[in-house]
Structure formats: C-alpha cells, structure tokens
Specification:
mainly alpha; Rna Polymerase Sigma Factor, Chain: A; Arc Repressor Mutant, subunit A; 2 domains; 8 helices; 0% strand; elongated
C-alpha cells in the first residue's frame, strides 16, 4: 500500500494541531532551496545559516499567530521572507562588499588605485559614502537592483528570479539607476575624485 505524502498546506494544518513532526517534514522538504537562495544573496555560510534560522522563526511565529494565507504557495512565501530578511540585513548593517574589477562596467571604477596612501584611503572612503547616498536616493526598484548587483554580486538572472521580474526589467532598472545616478551627480555637483 502506497501512502501519498501530505502537501504543504496539510503539513501546516497538522503542525498547528500540535504535530511537531509535520513542521520538521516541511522544513526538510524546503530547506535546501531556501538556504541556497539566502547563501547566494549573502555569500557567507555562517551568515546564511543565521538568516535561515531567523526565517524559520518568523515562519513559525506567523503560522502560530494564524497570519499565514496559504493559497498553496508555501515555498514562494518562505522564499519571499528569506529575500526580505537578506535585504533587511544589508540595510541594517550597511554592508557594502567590494565589487570585483573584472566587471565590464563598474560605477566604482573612479576608485582605482594600486597602493593607497592615507590621503587616498580617506578620499576613497568619502567617495564610497557619496555613492552610497546616491544609491540610497534612488527609487526602491532601482536601488534594489543596484544593491543586489554591486553589493550582493548577483547576476541579472539571479536578480530577476529573486525579485520575480524578467531579466529585461532587471536590466532596465539598472540602466535607469545609472542614468539617475549620473543625473544626481550633475544636479548636486558631486565630485567623485
């Protein structure tokens, strides 16, 4: 006799009825995809594990409070929570990893220097701060693409999957972000060197 496995919604109902094993099954079923998405975003194993745990704590809290609207899309909902928590992490910590110089075009090219002396280091830091302020002033969709591309080092394909837009939309948002940054530099007479 073959037993049909429970779907996500049935597992959630069973968990809410007190069956802890049901949640373990739900976690086991989806942890690889959720963890992988988080890791691809933050590119740090320990940080990915921390955020992964926070995601499932938030999921448990939401389920227990009865605020989960299933519609049969548990995985998409969980992935959205993990994505939001990753973005929140970057916002909270203002983490700005270095962007590789192998990019064909990089808005940080103005910062090139082989050996920085103290003055060059200060100038570079000030330039990074100016660029951060310009990025923060962008419309949310454009800011999101710039952060994911330059700070999280994600490909446009990964960005389009994560934000649920086409690759062309992600590319367009980046294009408009760069146009807006150039416009702000001119309007505000920002010097980056």
């Amino acid at each position: 006799m073959q037993v049909t496995p429970l779907n996500d919604q049935q597992l959630i109902i069973s968990y809410l009825d007190g069956n802890e094993k049901a949640f373990e099954e739900l976690l086991t079923r989806h942890k690889a995809k959720i963890y992988t998405q988080i890791y691809l975003f933050v590119k740090d194993t320990a940080l990915a594990e921390d955020i992964f745990q926070e995601v499932f704590i938030k999921i448990i809290d939401t389920l227990r409070k009865g605020k989960y609207n299933h519609e049969g899309k548990f995985l998409q909902w969980a992935l959205r929570i993990s994505y939001n928590m990753c973005v929140d992490y970057f916002r909270r910590n203002k983490r700005r990893p270095k962007v590789s110089q192998t990019e064909t075009f990089d808005i940080f090219d103005v910062l090139k220097s082989d050996d920085d002396n103290a003055e060059q280091s200060i100038m570079k830091s000030q330039t990074h701060q100016k660029i951060r302020k310009l990025v923060d002033a962008l419309p949310p969709e454009q800011r999101e693409v710039v952060i994911l591309r330059h700070y999280a080092d994600m490909s446009f394909k990964e960005i389009s999957q994560l934000t649920r837009v086409s690759i062309n939309t992600a590319l367009g948002r980046m294009r408009y972000a760069l146009i807006n940054i150039r416009k702000m530099i001119e309007e505000r007479e920002v010097t980056l060197q």
